[in-house]
Amino acid sequence: MNSFDDADRLACNTLRMLAVDAIEKARSGHPGMAMGAASMAHVLWSRILKHDPTHPHWPDRDRFVLSAGHASMLLYGLLHLSGYDLPLEEIQRFRQLGSRTPGHPELGVVPGVEVTTGPLGQGFAMGVGMAMAERRLGQTFHVAETPPLLDHHTYVLMSDGDMMEGITHEAASLAGHLQLGKLICLYDKNNISIEGSTDLAFTEDVAMTFQACGWHTLWVEDGESMEEIYRAILTAKEEIQRPSLIIVCTHIGYGSPKQDSEEVHGAPLGPQAVAETRRFFNWPQETFHVPLSVRQLWQQVRQRGQQARMDWQRHFEQWADGNPDLGKRFKDRLDLNLGDAWLKAIDSVPIPPESWPTRILSSRILNAIAQEVPALWGGSADLGPSVGTHLSFEPERIIHFGIREHAMGAIANGLAAHGGFLPYCGTFFSFSNYMIPSMRMAALMHLRVIYVMSHDSIAVGEDGPTHQPVEHLLHLRAIPGMTTIRPGDGQETKAAWRLAMQLPGPVALILTRQAIPLVVKDAPVFVEKGAYVRQDCVGEPELIVISSGSELALTVDCCDELVQKGIRVRLVSMPSWELFARQSPEYQETVLPARVTQRLAVEAASPMGWHRWVGLQGKIIAVEGYGVAGPFQQVLDAFGFTRENIVQTAWSMVRPGL
After folding, report:
1. H or E stretch including 63?
2. Which of 134, 127, 150, 602 is nearest to 410 (CA)?
């Protein structure tokens, strides 16, 4: 099937008209790219892509990422025609509540969608991560003088909008540096964005930009020439030293009267334009029409895909029979069955009796775990020594992301989505703002990614407000599905890592630059509960003090002084709002009994959100505004994080007027 005939052209037009009809029925959607990129999508999926719709998750399948997620109907048409579990009825329910065809592709909604896409550039960067995962996993399980166990490509379909986003340039730079030869990107160059011609804002020479980043680039001048597209993809597959970018010149809204206009980008064509489009393609009036010859063409494609998967399965079984230990390890990697040796490794890390930065202890824990968990793979945005993400025992295992936080977050998502890896990445907490889009996507997809965030508060000190996070805790806590843990000492740091290795979604560990003391040696901690009583009084408390992170040790001293003054005070450590919110109402009541209304929260970050836990009668010692530059202890003092201020505030709450 290396030649293209009328059946192929009919298949391309079927993709176009399915998109037109679905978007028209929904009265919502983006028909332009789905129509313009149909030929390249058909060539890739019908001739090149190694996939089996009956086993959509087999390990050696090619990965396809629709980075331009607004063209989702193009992907849904491909999934339906090629035989994935997406019936025509779901195409007819495009963008409807509860349908399996949401406005942008979503991981887990329908088989064949590898990642959630929509925010432009994210899919491209995740594709880079997938290509990195394929190469490393293939190298890990390669046996000399045998065919490779993993040998697949990652294909990304991207748009002009993807090209404009900064994350794309970060990820492209790293991909070129790493020489990811099995990454092939098709760029749908239709020169139209929402406001009109891309010439309004985007005139760079994309080919030269990518070449400068170490990419192999090809041009297809006629986006309707399936032969040219096919030859370009084959040429790209032959290039093994460089990732490839295929620039395909297309017509947005091809075949419609709104072709080459911004009017066809993000809105239905409308009845009159739909009628004219049907005449252009000589298409029947029946909506959602799929010709029999198109069904037959895709049946042949399915058979080839099933054969490729069965061939690989036989190869795997022979390989595993000859390498039983390696075969078990491979299955464990794909299942992320991490064993339990890493738990003992955490226990073996000593907690220094003196004050110690949690970032340094975290680094020791990470190194101990990584020796037992090969699936743990990551690095930092050029801050490994500072945030504690370097591996001392296996430096070649470190991913040097460079100063590219945007791309780093999305690439970590690609590693996780590919399978076989539990990725981690680190930076200064204040720079998490650069990563928020990718962190949100990880949470949306329920991907297991660990974020190591150090320099957690205004205690960063001399570097000043640009490096002192204030609103960042609130931001992460507001992301549904993200678990944020701010441990208060060495014991809680160990517990935080245990959770990060086990929780089903992304976890952010918020760590200190400055040294903090061990609060109480060998005292039990319950970080998994999110909040717990760290120090209690005899009888019912008059006051509950709640704290997290580096402020915990300070509040211990304050509570001791309050006890000496005759106040019944309970100290609650709250390293994770999200984990505490998931506990039963009964447990929450044992920690924060409703009848105790005098509550004081102490945290060197924004006060927003704390009233959920302290109530309207409670008080909060926090950071209003930004931090300031200066020695960290002086900065903390200036914002009221002193024993005197906390004790005085607490005293005024329970002994007013005295």
Report:
1. strand 63-66
2. 127
Q: Which of 24, 170, 262, 405 is catalytic?
A: 405
Torsion of CA 443, 446, 448, 453, to 10 degrees: 10
* Sequence-ordered strand ranges (E) for 119-163: 154-159
* Distance (Å, whole) CA 526 – CA 443: 24
Q: Are β-strands 196-197 and 192-193 bridged in parallel, bridged antiparallel, or unpaired?
A: antiparallel
Q: Angle, nearest 10°, between helix axes 405-418 and 166-178?
A: 70
Tokens 């909604």 — which residue? 109
Amino acid code (one letter) for 525: V
Which tokens hold the place of 115?
A: 């990642």
Note every long-range contact of 581-589, with CB atoms under 8 Å and residues 24 or more positions apart, other chains counting: 581/530, 582/530, 583/529, 583/530, 587/529
| Three-point CA angle 601, 605, 606, nearest 5° | 85
The pLDDT value recorded for residue 1 is 53
Q: List the structure tokens of 230.
A: 């096919």
Which residue, 559, 515, 485, is CA-closest to 353?
515
| Distance from C-alpha of 101 to C-alpha of 87, rounded to nearest angstrom | 10
CA–CA separation, 149 and 166 (whole Å): 35
Residues paired with residue 183 on neighbouring β-strands, in sequence order: 154
The token pair that represents 304 in the structure block: 């080839």
Q: Tell me which amino acid residue 596 is.
A: V
- Report strand pairing: 192-193 vs 183-189: unpaired
> Is the model's pLDDT at 216 over the cut of 60?
yes
List pLDDT tens digits, range 101-154.
999 999 999 999 999 999 999 999 999 999 999 999 999 999 999 999 999 999
Largest CA distance in the chain: 92
Provide the CB-side half-sphere exposure for 316 (13 A, CA): 17
Cβ proximity of 132 and 415 under 8 Å: yes
Q: How many helices (H) and strands (E) does the chain have?
A: 26, 18
pLDDT-derived band at 353 (thresholds 50, 70, 90) equals: confident
Per-residue model confidence as pLDDT tens digits over 275-329: 999 999 999 999 999 999 999 999 999 999 999 999 999 999 999 999 999 999 9
Please name the helix (run of DSSP H) or strand (run of DSSP E) that holds residue 485, with its range, or none. Answer: strand 483-485
DSSP state of 57: T
Q: Are 429 and 453 in contact (CB under 8 A)?
A: yes
pLDDT at 522 over 80: no
Type and span of the H or E element at 452: strand 450-454
**Measured distance CA(288)–CA(269) in Å, rounded:** 15
Phi-psi sector, 284: left (phi>0), alpha (psi -120 to 50), beta: beta
pLDDT tens per residue across span 356-377: 999 999 999 999 999 999 999 9
**Is 89 an annotated catalytic residue?**
no
Distances (CA, A) of 376 to 243, 306, 443, 545: 25, 32, 19, 37
Domains of the chain: residue spans and CATH: 6-121+150-306 (3.40.50.970), 341-510 (3.40.50.970), 527-654 (3.40.50.920)
Select from 392, 479, 464, 399 the least CA-distant residue to 432. Answer: 479
User: Can you tell me the distance from the alpha carbon of 379 to that of 430, in angstroms, rounded to the nearest whole number?
Assistant: 17
DSSP 600-654: EEE-SS--TTTHHHH-TT-EEE---S----S-HHHHHHHTT-SHHHHHHHHHHHH
Contact 137, 150 (CB under 8 A): yes
Query: pLDDT at residue 411 above 90?
Result: yes
